Each structure stands twice: as C-alpha cells, then as structure tokens.
Amino acid sequence: MDYTNVTLAGSYFCIKVYSSGGTFRDAMKICESEKAKLLAITTQAQIADLTRVSGANGIVWAYIGISDEASEGQWVSWDGSAVNLNWKPGEPSNTVNQNCAFASFSNYYVVDMSCNEYQPFICHKKWL
C-alpha cells in the first residue's frame, strides 16, 4: 500500500498502514526511513475516523505513537502533544514495561502494552 490522504478529526494526514507490524522502535525507524513519522493519535475523534481506514486494511490494533517511557504514568505523544483518550477500564495499568499505547479499532479504546510487542502501525507525512 502506498501513502493515502485521509482526514482524521478535521486534520489532514497522508498515511501508510503497516499491517505486518513491528515493535515500537521498529515502527519509528521504518517511518523515519520513509521521511515520515509514526502517526500519533491523541483524541477519540481521531480513533473513530481512523477506524474506517484501519478496518479497510484488516488491522484491529495498532501503535498510536503514545508512551509514558519518559515519565511513568504521564502519557504523551512522541512529539510531546497532550493526550485525551478513552482508556479501556483498568487501563493504563502502568505495569512495569508497559510503556506504549495501542488503539483498538473495534472497541474505540486504548490500552498500555510492552513496546516490544509486534503490532501494526501507521506512518504519516504531509498531505500529498
């Protein structure tokens, strides 16, 4: 799949879905190698809109560019943006080594998991 233009919560993105997945660091490196960034989802509206795109690509979960690696329990996007998401009940569990966030596109919620999990991810670059 090539990059595709989409609108997420009124913002314009050009995205590429990697359904085969990788670790969080793999995702960051792959996106950077394409002169792109890992898509950072920071609102529920973006998750809802992204559900259309993710479902078409057969993915149910994906890294969303959010972590608390810098400060346990302080969830921010890779670019430092604030996060306003609906966490699954009991999440984030803030268990040791669960420092990356994943979105469920079937249930519209977010959970924390290990950054070493192999999961789908989405890169983005400027609108083409």
TrEMBL record:
Q: Which InterPro entries match?
A: C-type_lectin-like, C-type_lectin-like/link_sf, Ca-Dep_Lectins_ImmuneDev, CTDL_fold
Cleaved signal peptide residues: none
SUPFAM superfamilies according to UniProt: C-type lectin-like
Do you know which SMART domains this protein is assigned to?
Answer: CLECT
Specify one Pfam family: Lectin_C
What name has this protein been given in UniProt?
C-type lectin domain-containing protein
Membrane spanning segments where?
A: none
Gene3D superfamilies in UniProt: Mannose-Binding Protein A, subunit A
Q: Which residues form the C-type lectin domain?
A: 14-124
